[in-house]
TrEMBL record:
<keyword id="KW-0489">Methyltransferase</keyword>
<dbReference type="GO" id="GO:0032259">
    <property type="term" value="P:methylation"/>
</dbReference>
<dbReference type="InterPro" id="IPR029063">
    <property type="entry name" value="SAM-dependent_MTases_sf"/>
</dbReference>
<dbReference type="GO" id="GO:0102208">
    <property type="term" value="F:2-polyprenyl-6-hydroxyphenol methylase activity"/>
</dbReference>
<keyword id="KW-0808">Transferase</keyword>
<keyword id="KW-0830">Ubiquinone</keyword>
<dbReference type="Pfam" id="PF13489">
    <property type="entry name" value="Methyltransf_23"/>
</dbReference>
<protein>
    <submittedName>
        <fullName>Ubiquinone biosynthesis O-methyltransferase</fullName>
        <ecNumber>2.1.1.222</ecNumber>
    </submittedName>
</protein>
């Protein structure tokens, strides 16, 4: 997604990390998902965890912006698009652009949202993402939110301007935003948008929160 903040354009697609930089603790969590659920990966980026998701799920829907899904880039070692890579490598899986998500009616057992909310610099878009997730979950389904609450490179961002949950940083390669969503922040945010917290735990620099629609 792209945002205009105080005259600066933030291109979040540039922040997506490749599969070679996946978090082992996140990958281990995904690999431990049982019973072959249907999964929606919200903010799939460059398919950082796609192999593991496809292995544990009955089907996976990968969601990101039109730009991220359709631009040619390096995806898991190939020069292609995310959309074409999914079509060629994951039978029964598909991509859905965020811009068309209002029309998507399928329900999912599990929705993964990994290092996505921390990249969104405005309240309205965070609310929209959380509303989509809660709408697309089955009644007995759950979402897993993973966010970093600290990192060695946060010091760079902290030299920027304080904004929302984090900082707006302007560097030689343009402007970027990173939010710091620790346990109190993410739990309050989810409860505010109609979620019930199942559990939250911390592994290293990452905070994991499982949540479901508040009945």
């Amino acid at each position: 997604m792209r945002y205009k903040i105080k005259g600066e354009e933030i291109r979040t697609e540039n922040a997506a990390k490749p599969s070679s930089q996946k978090s082992l603790v996140v990958d281990d969590y995904i690999g431990g998902i049982l019973n072959k659920p249907s999964i929606l990966d919200f903010g799939c980026g460059k398919l950082r965890y796609s192999d593991t998701l496809a292995l544990v799920a009955s089907k996976v829907t990968f969601v990101d912006s039109e730009i991220q899904l359709n631009r040619e880039q390096s995806v898991r070692g190939e020069r292609t698009t995310v959309k074409n890579y999914v079509k060629s490598n994951y039978s029964g899986c598909k991509t859905v652009p965020y811009e068309s998500l209002d029309k998507h009616r399928s329900k999912y057992d599990v929705i993964t949202c990994t290092n996505v909310l921390s990249a969104i610099p405005c309240k309205r878009m965070i609310a929209d993402v959380l509303e989509h997730i809660i709408r697309l979950l089955r009644k007995d389904g759950f979402a897993i939110f993973v966010n970093q609450h600290r990192s060695s490179y946060f010091s760079k961002y902290e030299s920027g301007e304080k904004m929302l949950h984090g900082y707006l940083y302007s560097g030689s390669k343009g402007s970027s935003y990173y939010g710091i969503l620790d346990k109190p922040v993410i739990e309050l945010l989810l409860k505010k948008h109609g979620y019930e917290i199942i559990k939250t735990w911390v592994v290293g620099e990452s905070t994991f929160t499982e949540a479901r629609p508040n009945s």
